[in-house]
Amino acid sequence: MVPFYEYKTKLIHCFSGNCFDYPPHLHGGPELLRVRSGELKVLIHTQEYLVSAGEIAIIFPNVVHSYQTITQSQDTKLDLLVCGQDENNGFPHTLIGSSLAEPVKPISYFHPDVDYIFSALLKEENEGRDTHILHAYLQIFWRRLLPQLTITDSVQPAAADLTTNLIAYITEHFREPLSLELLSRELGVCRFYLSRIFTQVLHIGFYDYVNALRTNYAKKLLLDSKDTVIDIAMQCGFQSQQTFNRVFKKNCGMTPAAYRRMKSGKG
């Protein structure tokens, strides 16, 4: 999944998996991660948490976060729920811009309805998505969960707004030539301050972040299109196939051509 700022109009998006490795990103709606087995390292704003089996991570809107799976995929079971910016998602609009003092808790800490509805939402996503049922579930879900959380005002709102704008701009333009100098001119912020946002807030270097976006986009094109590797390299913003191969192998452990063969069953 490409790390990005996404305006989600869909009421919810949820799925299960055994490996979530997402670079720093954010959404305009709340996001929840439930770990059924295994462990993940989760960055929420500027703090890292180890989320283990039986725990849930709760991320409020517009809070930068990332996931790194620690355990082997066969030992890991994860569920992700992302709410869109729909007025019926049950999340109070007044809490947008707030954050949590303790965003990671044992799911047993909450009313049993929280765990039950999380599973019910996953099932509803896979079996038909009755909108009226989804609305009802989400209303109950947040009413059970929110009273047991310590909610605080967002820290450094100006920095948070800049991070949002920065991610949104890069998301829109990552297929074009990018530099800190260009971002500085476009956003009207000193390039050294932007560099500190990458290192201190996003915990990733600027070029590593851009290359992660380009690599994830390339993975999609390699599987969904019949374009040549060099054409895909150009579409993703790489200046040469050599650079594309080097960056892709660094991020994925293999060349783009090998990745395409493996995923298509021809490797």
What does this protein structure show overall?
The chain is α+β, with helices and mostly antiparallel strands. It folds into two domains: 5-153, Jelly Rolls; 157-263, Homeodomain-like (Arc Repressor Mutant, subunit A). It has nine helices and twelve strands. The chain has helices at residues 112-127, 131-145, 157-173, 180-187, 191-202, 206-224, 229-235, 241-252, 256-263; strands spanning 5-6, 12-17, 22-27, 31-37, 39-44, 47-52, 55-59, 65-69, 77-83, 98-100, 104-106, 151-153. A five-stranded mixed sheet has the order 1-3-8-5-6. It has a five-stranded antiparallel sheet with strand order 2-9-4-7-11, with helices on one face. Strands 10-12 form a two-stranded antiparallel sheet. The chain is globular and about 55 Å long.
By secondary-structure content and strand pairing, the structural class works out as: alpha+beta
Helix content: 40-55%
Shape: globular
CATH architecture of the largest domain: Sandwich
Q: How many E strands?
A: 12
Termini gap: 23 Å
Output the radius of gyration.
Answer: 19 Å
Mean pLDDT: 87
Low-confidence stretches: 1-9
CATH class of the largest domain: Mainly Beta
Number of domains: 2
* CATH overall fold name of the largest domain: Jelly Rolls
Provide key terms for this protein.
9 helices, 267 residues, 12 strands, alpha+beta, Jelly Rolls
